[in-house]
Design brief:
This protein is mainly α. The chain has 2 domains: about 1-55, no CATH class; about 55-135, no CATH class. It has helices at about 15-20, 25, 45-50, 70-90, 110-120; strands at about 35, 55.
Length: about 140
């Protein structure tokens, strides 16, 4: 389910800048909420400052392979990540978001995104609950 949508930003705005400017971390519950990010999204300091967890798939660095625990963690994260990617895919199915957005629509793009996200949320579930790997 899509639960947070930031306002629109220009194409050259970094993910980190959007995170900070949107004040998303201030809306999270300290010591309870967490953000799932890719390895290139460097926001450790910001999350630590707000006591927000950070979920990122482990990566090899200089190791030959992941430990058993890291492999299980990676599988769990990947199972949830599929849900995120499919939600993004459903948003992109709307013709208005398939290419550049015309200047005449720019004043409405934030409202359009809210409407499209709501429609995506109303569609059938992308994955059934039994498809998720639970760590508990």
């Amino acid at each position: 389910m899509i639960s947070v949508i930031s306002k629109g930003y220009g194409g050259r705005t970094s993910d980190k800048a959007i995170l900070v400017q949107s004040k998303l971390l201030e809306k999270c519950i300290p010591n309870e909420d967490a953000l799932m990010v890719d390895k290139g999204f460097q926001i450790e300091a910001e999350c630590a400052q707000h006591k927000i967890g950070l979920i990122r798939p482990p990566f090899l660095k200089k190791k030959a392979q992941l430990s058993h625990l890291e492999a299980v963690e990676t599988a769990s994260i990947a199972a949830a990540r599929v849900h995120i990617e499919r939600s993004i895919q459903r948003i992109k199915l709307f013709k208005v978001f398939k290419g550049p957005i015309g200047q005449n629509l720019l004043p409405y793009v934030d409202d359009m995104m809210v409407i499209v996200a709501a429609v995506v949320n109303l569609t059938n579930p992308i994955l059934h609950e039994d498809k998720f790997i639970h760590s508990c």
